[in-house]
Amino acid sequence: MNTNRLSKTLAAALNAQMTKEAHASQIYLSYAAWADKEGFGGIANFLFRHAQEERNHMMKLLEYILKRGAEVKVTAIPAPPENPVSVNNCFEKVFEHEVDNTKAVYKLVKMSLDEEDWATWNFMQWFVKEQTEEETLAMNLLDKIKIAGGEKVSSNSLYSLDRDLETTPDDAKAAQDVTADNP
Ligand code: OFO
Question: What is the pTM of this model?
Answer without folding.
Answer: 0.94
